[in-house]
Amino acid sequence: MSASLTLTGLFLYPVKSLGGYAVAEADVTARGLQHDRRWLLVDERNRFMTQRQLPEMALLSVAPAYNGFLITHRQRPDLLPLFIPFEATLERTLFVTIWDDMAWAWRGTPQADEWLTEALGRPCRLVYMSDMVRRDVEPEHNPEGQLVSFADGYPFLMIGEAALADLNTRLAQPVPMNRFRPNLVFGGGTPYEDDNWEDFQVSGVSFRAVRGCGRCVLTTIDQQSATKNPVGDPLRTLATYRQVEHSIMFGQNVTGAGKGRLRVGDALTVLSHK
Questions:
Q1: Confidence class for position 231, pLDDT limits 50, 70, 90
Q2: 70 pairs with which residues across the strands?
């Protein structure tokens, strides 16, 4: 068991694949951190949109506001900030597709759709996941029946600071943690030691590291400029030493007990290993 492991970062991404922001504390819910990835952008076919297909989504930054958040465009000062509440206020629904899942979603406002369509240069709609909607973690790794928001597959993504530091020693140009969009960041320990973790607690809140997170092209997109990393592609570098079968692993997919409160600085304790 490692000593002196600490939660050093908490991050929320209210809209899937848009910018995120750090918080000092956050509530744990059945679908992940409260307000994380409860909103989603969909195209004309009601299929989810991400930076994988549209890197320009990285230019939409998100900042906390009272009972919601503000979206701004880094390169379009002519677009006034767009306020979005943490929860949808309208009850118009539609069926959306995210990966292989289909789920009911609540519509945002027409004004939000118009703003985002203008900002991204293509038709899109903003939708919300209500607590009434059930989306399960992938069944082969989900004996407890855990839920997930509009995140790719799991309610939490965790990365160790030591792992990023190790990766950056191998790159011609270091990359920041935001390339990997974690919810939980921990300090202390050795690089990638969480590969072998199973059950752990953060200040008494229970979690389980289910499996490594397979990474994609999004890790190559500069989150400030929406351009591909010009020097030292992190995905290509990770492939030289973190490839397992056909996946390039960095970070852990995590499930949780569904309740509790986390604060930056909380102690992390590993209870069992795989």
A1: low
A2: 63, 83
Q: Please provide the DSSP assignment of 211-241 as one string.
A: EEEEP-GGGGB-TTT-SB-SS--HHHHHTTT
Neighbours of 143 (CB within 10 A): 8
- The torsion angles phi and psi of 189, rounded to 5 degrees, stand at 80, -170
pTM of the model: 0.96
pLDDT at 145: 87
**Kindly report the CA angle at 124 between 120 and 128, in degrees rounded to 5?**
120
Q: What per-residue confidence (pLDDT) applies to 1?
A: 46
> The tokens of 14 are what?
């209210």
Sign of CA pseudo-dihedral 84, 89, 95, 99: positive
Share of the chain above pLDDT 70, in %: 97
